[in-house]
Amino acid sequence: DLRGIVCPINFVKCCLAMENLSSNDILKVDIDKGEAENNVINGLQEKGYRVNILCNDFKKVTLLISSE
Question: What is the C-alpha to C-alpha distance for residues 18 and 6, in angstroms, rounded to an integer?
């Protein structure tokens, strides 16, 4: 749960978590809507990760992140 965590710390935490997972694992993370949503998704995709939106409501976005 990375809600309330500012950019770029939430992006860095996602990247560090992904480095500790095996290639078949999926990271599920909640982030705030808006700037955090855009920066984290775009940054992860630029690093080559696949990002799927599991839930998108008015306050948060739940992402499923995996290696491509």
Answer: 19
